[in-house]
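[job 0412] stage=complex_fold ligand=flavin-adenine dinucleotide status=START
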Amino acid sequence: MSNTLVAESPLSFFSRRMMLERPFETLVRQLAPTWSRTETLAEVVELRRESPRATTVVLAPNGRWSGFEPGQFVPVTFEVNGVRTTRCYSLSEAPRRGRLHITVARHPQGKVSRHVHDHLALGTVVTLGEAAGALVLPREPGPVLLVAGGSGVTPMRAHVRALAERRALEGVVLLHDARTEEDLLFARDFRALTLAHPGFAYLPRTTSGDDPTLRLDAARLATLVPDFASRTALACGPGGFVAMIEAAFAEAGAGARLRTESFTAPMAAAPPANAETRTIAAPVALLRSQVHFNADGRTSLLVQAEAAGARPKSGCRMGICHTCTCTKRSGTVVNLLTGRVSSEPNEAVQLCVSAALGPVELDA
Ligand SMILES: Cc1cc2nc3c(=O)[nH]c(=O)nc-3n(C[C@H](O)[C@H](O)[C@H](O)COP(=O)(O)OP(=O)(O)OC[C@H]3O[C@@H](n4cnc5c(N)ncnc54)[C@H](O)[C@@H]3O)c2cc1C
Ligand code: FES
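[job 0412] stage=complex_fold status=DONE, emitting structure tokens
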């Protein structure tokens, strides 16, 4: 009887390992739902209704979570009606060991925010990206001004709580504009902090629906915070609100003191006047997912890739979070927000705000 040793092919060795490891991973997941070798997973451990339209989700991440700074946001992937869907949310509490807080405002037609508000259950496991964002304060910021519009108060909450913990809240001004009293999120908390830290000024304002005469403008900003231009300032809110604050600081010659972030795109995804977009039918190849489609030269590559059945990673879908960034192997694309054209091979492009200007190969 021959005793020939047949070498196992790499493929069958791989499949055997997979067959052995799959049940092991499933068992571990049952015991520890956020365990993963590759993904940053987090379990929903608390749900807190902040107002009729906003819910705080407290998450316990696994050991792969690498932390954040107050003011940053995190891409969170929820499963909504069986589809993994990612959105960015600012962390709304100071960094605490083992817990992350996000506060989600419900949009009447919004896919994820309605799901979070109406259906999210304790024990659900979500996937996290890495914390990112430039809405952070320098270590020694001097006098600080925080300006928030609507749910843009969430990153400011993390700052205020972190500054309070460092006993550095004296001299800080927080200006919050919201439509109604109910939308002044965390108002009770902020008021309590003004008692504990008398040098902290909390200036909540309600703009009562859509009355434009009540909205914050440069003149009102100067009245409410006369020394605004000499402060280190952060602003967050809807695109138009943030643009107004930027204009006020620029006019006062203090643009460099201000950092901003918006939860909504500064403008609709229409190409700027200087973008050389035109209606075309350019073949696009997603090399890793092996998806091919014809781009129209105007619609974002992300939207068109999804329409073609691909599922590239995405977060904000408006050029802020970089979750959708991938390498363009060849071809020319235009950034729909800035008009910048990328034609060199191997450049990083953001799928959500880029349109093809000809045949393109993407490492996606
Ligand atoms: C950096 C960053 C930080 C953020 N931080 C926060 C935060 O802390 N808290 C927070 O609440 N949000 C935050 N956001 C916004 C958040 O990422 C989502 O955009 C928001 O929750 C809406 O997602 P959605 O899936 O519910 O809405 P989507 O389904 O994506 O819809 C987006 C908008 O379109 C409207 N819409 C959708 N479908 C229709 C339709 N058929 N007809 C008319 N209108 C429609 C929705 O009402 C909504 O206003 C942040 C965004 C960014 C980029
Ligand atoms: S999805 Fe956020 S930059 Fe593209």
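The pocket of FE2/S2 (inorganic) cluster (ligand 2) is lined by residues 314-317, 319-324, 350, 352 (CB under 6 Å).
[job 0412] exit 0
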